[in-house]
Amino acid sequence: MTTQLLLVQALNGLQLGVLLFLVAAGLTLVFGVMDFINLAHGVQYMLGAYLGAAFAAATGSFWLGLALALPAALAAGLLLELLVFRHLYDRDHLSQVLATFGVILVLNEGVKVVWGAAPLQVPIPPLLEGGIEIMPGLQYPIYRVAVLGAGIATAGLLWWLVERTRAGMLVRAGATNPAMVSALGVDVRQLFTMVFAFGAMLAGFAGVLAGPIFSVEPGMGDNVLILAFVVIVIGGIGSIRGAFVAALLVGLIDTLGKSLMPDLMRLFLDASAARQAGAALASMLVYVAMAAILAFRPAGLFPVRAG
């Protein structure tokens, strides 16, 4: 692999990492604050992508589509929370897993009914078309750079909201001791609803950003959800900083592994066997890394302090 290709794949890995962070941030807050396992969080990423594509097609503008998709994703999250999820908060984790898996099936079929089963293509906005020269003779898409910048900016804003604002203080306190926060006059259930809706909007934002890069199709959130769970386990459940660092790490391992492992296997196998073995091993690298990290840091890289 050439240096240029390695650099491109590293940037692609970082770009995947920030998308994973946007999904994992809401997931880690919901899991960490509410102790609620939401397998349907990946569906909210898919809904964001479809809403962004639909609004962009209707208005003729990617930016208007993004502006309309964010409140729509938040409203969809609130509706799901009201109709389904709030009835599961006091249930055991198995009930939560089964119910939210049912939501995945319903919404995956729902988008097929509304938009069809064929993948949708979202054009890159004209302002972000073309490439930027990152080294002599190497162009990298401006849109992917913009996604990377948007993810980093969102991470900084989210960290500030959680760590430096009163609402963030209440969220952290509600996660640590909800009974005490409730005794002080705070509506903990309303606080949890706010966290859930905000997490749904972040996942929807990731879906809109992913639309011009990946095809928008039913079930697109399933693989992202699996990686997002890996991210929050590695980073530490409930930790925004941990989710950000782990998301970048997972994005790099996943992307570079898929690029490098087939080439590495060619040192030992013929080309056809190397491709197959490389692809199989690359799909395992993220989970091997997770196991290795948890062997030394069982609570994750940046566990949330209790108390």
Please name the defining characteristics of this protein.
mainly alpha, 307 residues, two-stranded antiparallel ribbon, 2 strands, 2 domains, globular
Explain the overall architecture.
- This protein has 2 domains: 25-219, no CATH class; 220-307, no CATH class.
- It has 11 helices and 2 strands, in the order ααααββααααααα.
- The protein has helices at 3-34, 41-59, 62-83, 93-115, 142-164, 166-176, 178-183, 188-210, 221-235, 240-265, 271-296; strands at 131-135, 138-141.
- α1 packs antiparallel against α10 (240-265), α9 crosses α10 and α9 packs parallel to α11.
- It is globular and about 65 Å long.
In short:
This protein is an all-alpha fold. The protein has helices at 3-34, 41-59, 62-83, 93-115, 142-164, 166-176, 178-183, 188-210, 221-235, 240-265, 271-296; strands spanning 131-135, 138-141. It has eleven helices and two strands, in the order H-H-H-H-E-E-H-H-H-H-H-H-H.
Rg (CA only): 20 Å
Determine the number of helices (DSSP H or I, runs of at least 4 residues).
11
* Extended strand count: 2
Number of domains: 2
| Helix and strand element order | HHHHEEHHHHHHH
The 3D shape can be described as: globular
- Share of helical residues: over 70%
Task: Note the gap between the termini.
Answer: 49 Å
In terms of DSSP E residues, the strand content is under 5%
Q: Taking strands numbered 1, 2, ... along the chain, how are they ordered across the largest sheet? A: 1-2
What is the averaged pLDDT score?
Answer: 87
Based on secondary structure, the structural category is: mainly alpha
- Tell me about the largest β-sheet: 2 strands, antiparallel
Low-confidence stretches: none
